Amino acid sequence: MAATPEAPAAVKPDIPVTEQAVAPESPEPSTQEEGKPGKTRWSALFDDWYYAWEVFGIIVSGLAIVSICVVVWYYDDKEAPVWVAQVPGRDKPFQFTINSLLSILSVFGSTCAMIPVTKGLGQLKYLWFMEKDRTLADLETFDSASRGKVGSAQLMWKLRFKHLAVLGGLASLLALAYGPFVQNLIVITIEYRPGNQTALASFTSSYHEGYEFGDNQTPMSFAIDSALRDSSVSWTIPPNLCKTGSCEWPDYYTAGVCARCTDISHLVSRECTPVAGEDDMVGGCNVFLPNGFGFNNTGSANLGAPLSKIVMAVNTTTPPLVYNYTTPLAVIQSIMGYDPKQNAADGSKPSTLAPFSIDESSVLTARECALVPCVQKQRFNLTRRADTSKGQSANIQESVPSLSILDDHWDTWDPLSVTGPPENWGDVYVTFDLEKEIPNVAESIKYGPFGFGRTAYWALRDYLSALLTGYVFTGPLDGTDLTVIFKSGVDTLKSTSATDKAMMSIFLNSQHGNWTGTFCNNTLGTSNDLECAARNIAAGVTNGMRISTWETVEDERRAIDGVTKEPMQICHAQWQYVAAPVAVWLLGLALFIGVVWKTRRAGIKAWRTSPLATLLLRLDPDSREHLRDWQNKGDGELRDLAAGLRLRLHVDEAGPRFVKEEGGATGRV
C-alpha cells in the first residue's frame, strides 16, 4: 500500500508587532503585590504620581531666584566685589566677579525651572488625546514643544492660547530672556565715593599782607583782576589740596569781604543839549547824582579828542548816598548809559558796540555798593563725574567747583581803635561771637579773631579806591576808527594801569551781559553792571586773602580737613529685570499644578516625556490598517499620514490604547 504523502507543514506568516493582537491585560491584581506592607496616603500619592523631579526643579529654581535677589540686594549701591584666588605657579590671580556669580545662578535656575515645564508638556500630550479624538500628528507637536523653543511657539499657535499647555510654551519662550535679564539686574557705573586720601581747603581768620599794591602783580591784585575779567570760574576756587579731584569739606568760616549794593537810578538827573545835525555824536546830556558825582556828555571832557562822550563813570571819593559806614574798604558809586538803539526790548545784549552818546532816550543805571570786612560761612566742594555713557570704560571729566556762601556776618564790625585820625587806627576786626556761632570748642579753637591787620587794611583800601575810580568814553577819534576808547580816572595820583582794565571790564561785561561769575548770575541778571562787579571783587579779595595764607610754610598752613572721593565701580540694582525669572518660575509652577490635577482626574500614570510609554501604547486595528506600510515612508509623509488619522487615548481594564471613534472625521483640529 502506497504511503500517503505527508501534507506540507503550514508556514506561519510573520506579523508585524504593531499588527499582532495583544492579549488583554488581566484585571486581576498581581500576586506579587500581596503581602506588601500598607502605605500611607501621602506615600501612595507620591508613588502614583512620581513628581520628584518636578518638585526638585521648582524648589531649586525658586531658591536660585531668591539667591540672585539676595546678591543683588546686598551689593546694591556698594562697590562691585571681585573675589581673587592665588594659584600656585601662576603670576596673576584668578578673578571671580559678581557678574560671573549671577551668570552661574541664572544658568542653574533656568535649567531647573525648565524641568516641570518640559515634563509637564510631555504629560499633557497624553491628556490632550484623552479629552477627545485628535489627529495623530498632534503627538509630534507636543513632543517637539517639550524639547525646544520653536516647538513651543508652534504649540501655542496651534492651541490658540486656549489650553494649559500654553503656560508651558510661554515659560519655554520666556526662558530665553532668563539669563540676559539676570545680567541686567545689576548695572555697574563709575562713581566717586569717599576715600582715604588727604583733602585740605584753605581758610583765613586774618589778613596781614602789608605791602603796597601799585602796578605789581601780587596774588591779591591778580585775584581781583581775574574776578573783574570774569572769563572763567577758576578765580572762584579757593586754594585746596585734593588728590582725587573730587572732595567735600564741611561748612567752615573764613574772613573775607562782603558786598552790599543798592539801585539808585531814580536819583540820577540829566541836563540835555539838543543833537545838532545828522551827526548824533554832537550834543547830548550831562548826568549827575545829588552828591555831585556825574559826568559831562556834551563835549570832549578834557580828553583832547573831539566828539568824545563819557558813557560810564565809577567813583569811590564822593560822599555815600546809602551806606554810611565809618571805615569801609570802599563805597563805590557808578552811572552807566545804554544805547536804546543797540539794546533790544527783550533784554538781549549786542555782540558788538558802536559809538553812542547819552541823550534823552538813553537808559541810565546807577548803583552804590559798599565793600566791608566780614566773616563768611562757606561750603566748598569739588565734584568730578565719570561719563559712563559708553559702558564701564568711563571718561573722567574735569573737576567742577561749587562754592556757596551760606551766611555772612558783617553788620557789626569795628576797629580796635576808632578815635583820632585814620592813621592812628589799629587793626580792623569783625565782631564775631565764636562761642555762639561755633559752640564746639574743638572746632572753634582753630579760628582766631577775624579781621585785617592795620597795614594790610589800608593798603587794600587805597588799592580799591584807585582801581575803582575812572570812566569810559566813546567816539571816533579820527572819524573812521569806531573802537571804544577808555581812559583812567582824573586822580592821577591814585590811578594805575589796572584802573583802565577794571573800567573796561565793568563796561563791556555790563553792556554785553557777560557777567557769569558764581557770585553774580545766581541771583542777578548778567547785565547788572556795578553790582555784579562789586560781588565779584568781594569774592576775589576773599580768595586773595586765602591764597596769601595758603602760600606759607606747609607745616604752618591753616586748612580745613575734608573727605576725598575716589572713582569706584558701584553696583545699582534694576529690579524690573527680575520679572523674567519670576515669570518663568510662576508659569512652571502653575503648569505643574495643572498637570497634576488633570492627571489625577484622568486616572493615568505620569508618563511625561518617557519614550517607553509612547512605544508601548497600542493602536486599534482600524488605526493599524490606516498606517499600513508606514515603515516605507519618510517623516514628512508620516506627518501627512498621521494628520488624517484622528484618535483618542482610551483607558479601560484592557489598558491604555489609541482608538478611532466611530464616525470620527479625519483632518486637523
TrEMBL record:
Keyword Cell wall biogenesis/degradation: no
Domain of life of the source: Eukaryota
InterPro entries: DUF3176
Keyword Nuclease recorded: no
Membrane spanning residue stretches: 49-74, 94-117, 575-597
Keywords carried by this UniProt record: Membrane, Transmembrane, Transmembrane helix
Location of region: Disordered: 1-39
Pfam families cross-referenced by the UniProt entry: DUF3176 (PF11374)
Coiled-coil residue spans: none
Name recorded for this polypeptide: Uncharacterized protein
Lineage: Eukaryota, Fungi, Dikarya, Ascomycota, Pezizomycotina
